[in-house]
Design a protein that fits this description.
This protein is an alpha/beta fold and 307 residues long. The chain is built from 10 helices and 13 strands.
Length: 307
Amino acid sequence: MKRYLVTGGAGFVGSHLVDYLLSRGHTVRVLDNFSTGKRERIPNGVEIVEADIRDQKAIASAFVGVDGVFHLAALPSVQVSLEHPEETHAVNVTGTVNVLLASRDARVPRIVYAASCAAYGDQATLPCHEGMTPHPNTPYALQKYIGEQYVQLFSTCYGLQTVALRFFNIYGPQLPFHGAYASVIGIFLKQQSSGQALTITGDGKQTRDFVYVEDIVRALLAAMESPHVGTGEVINIGSGVETSVNAVADLFGGQREYIAPRVELRAIRANIDRANTLLGWSPEISFADGMQRTMEWFARAMPSQRP
């Protein structure tokens, strides 16, 4: 069994990954500053290093003695990056460089980086495949793409084994449903529970590739363990299915309110052939099943949740 470090381990995806790693018999250390993550998501007995990835000296010790690093810590919001590009750059770019430096200096065998499909921008054809030229159109998209470039560079220049997984639109239990980091599904859950109309930006025909969080964590461990990667490969992790925002709203029912459009991707869908070839991975949870599980979780969790 291995000892792994999860940066952002108290976050939405990070906490699921921690639970999954523990269930597989691994030992886990979490690095988090708890700016968006929640301490109560981390099981008892898991070692916690409370530090900010922007502070290279403060995080260095967390990387000593681990067999791999899952780098999930980020400020993952297009809107926040538009409003605060300097702060999000410091976390998403400088923080990633600090994580890579700490991994190099501690001689960590491999690091798996959480990249983003936002790097694609709007493409002329779908599905998006890893050979396409990225067209990031927001600070967040650019920052995550720069992170990919650094991940590849550290493999080339320093011999650090690295992999970058381009996550598409993640959903599932524990997803954010209020504040700046809420996803469309999280927002709809909160609005429906409050008896409000579902707010839809633009015409609602924009599409997303929704992938369930349990499928994401399986991909993360597959990337850590696969003998076929380690030289900075970029790999899509999505469902390969396009779903419009209007179609998501149809699952919820009720009233809708269409509001002004904002800067966002018009359409996106993943080609996941590379994930299947290099990682032996493919999604297992359909959108219908995943949404049922997410709604059931929200119904249980809502009485105890506070904005």
